[in-house]
């Protein structure tokens, strides 16, 4: 197996690569049942264009997304690619705020996944009850529900709650994760959804709370998972996922 790639030696990304990865992430989210008709978003920053990111056109479903159909906007929610495309205001309210606050992040994913939404209703949130959950141990913040509108004041609170973490549980709303690549963000959402599903199925079967591992073990498992940081979530999985998508839903690269 090839040696892990150091973050310092990773080749610069191109806009074309990011567009393909983001379109693929949309298609795979649809295949997993994570879509919500035309709502929710996955976004990715544009290499070499600080303050610009890619987002889906409002009114399209996830299985329709292609690399070329993604819309380029700035962090103020203004379309800058000349397409005149319409975007969902919540897309730039949430995603624009996070991209502006976390320039090192390539991808922001906020979805209304079935198990993620259910998790957002639990006061205790995600607990270290499965190996999936260990990857996100103490890496998820919480943001209180404030309604559909997301004004400047709430944007500030949201990014403060996110801080340098890997994601947020938006209470009564759903999960949000960030990643240094589209692949990393997608894998973190995959792990979060699996962890939420496992926890709540166990809670239902057990009649409530289920035993969690201790803090020391959960923290150690997290450290073992991330290792020395040279290999990111998605590095190994993403090429295989793209090959599967090429077979099951071709056209996303267009």
List the helices and strands and how they pair.
Elements: H1 15-31, E1 41-45, E2 52-55, E3 71-74, H2 89-101, E4 107-110, H3 114-120, H4 131-134, E5 140-143, H5 152-162, E6 167-170, E7 174-179, H6 182-206, H7 215-226, H8 237-248
Parallel strand pairs: 5-6
Antiparallel strand pairs: 1-2, 1-4, 2-3, 4-7, 6-7
Short description:
With 254 residues, the protein is α+β, with helices and mostly antiparallel strands. Helices cover 40% and strands 12% of the residues.
What are the main properties of this structure?
254 residues; alpha+beta; 7-stranded mixed β-sheet; 8 helices
Describe the structure.
The chain has 254 residues and is an alpha+beta fold. Helices cover 40% and strands 12% of the residues. It has 8 helices and 7 strands, in the order H-E-E-E-H-E-H-H-E-H-E-E-H-H-H. It has a 7-stranded mixed beta sheet, sandwiched between helices. Helix 5 links the parallel strand 5 and strand 6 (167-170). Helix 2 (89-101) packs across helix 5 and helix 3 packs across helix 6. The longest helix has 25 residues, at 182-206. The protein starts with 14 loop residues before the first helix and ends in a 6-residue tail after the last helix.
């Amino acid at each position: 197996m090839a040696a892990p790639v150091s973050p310092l030696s990773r080749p610069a990304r191109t806009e074309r690569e990011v567009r393909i990865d983001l379109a693929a992430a949309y298609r795979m989210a649809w295949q997993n049942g994570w879509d919500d008709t035309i709502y929710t978003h996955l976004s990715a920053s544009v290499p070499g264009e600080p303050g610009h990111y890619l987002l889906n056109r409002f009114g399209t479903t996830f299985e329709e997304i292609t690399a070329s159909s993604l819309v380029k906007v700035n962090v103020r929610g203004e379309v800058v690619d000349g397409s005149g495309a319409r975007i969902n205001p919540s897309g730039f309210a949430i995603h624009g705020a996070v991209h502006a606050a976390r320039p090192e992040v390539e991808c922001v994913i906020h979805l209304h996944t079935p198990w993620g939404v259910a998790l957002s209703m639990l006061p205790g949130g995600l607990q270290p009850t499965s190996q999936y959950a260990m990857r996100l141990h103490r890496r998820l913040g919480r943001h209180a529900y404030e309604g559909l509108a997301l004004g400047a004041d709430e944007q500030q609170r949201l990014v403060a709650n996110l801080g340098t973490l890997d994601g947020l549980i938006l209470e009564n709303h759903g999960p949000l994760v960030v990643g240094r690549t589209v692949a990393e963000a997608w894998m973190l959402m995959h792990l979060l959804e699996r962890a939420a599903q496992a926890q709540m199925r166990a809670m239902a079967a057990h009649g409530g709370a289920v035993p969690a591992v201790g803090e020391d073990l959960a923290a150690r498992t997290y450290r073992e998972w991330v290792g020395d940081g040279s290999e990111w979530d998605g590095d190994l999985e993403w090429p295989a996922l793209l090959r599967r998508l090429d077979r099951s839903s071709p056209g996303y690269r267009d």
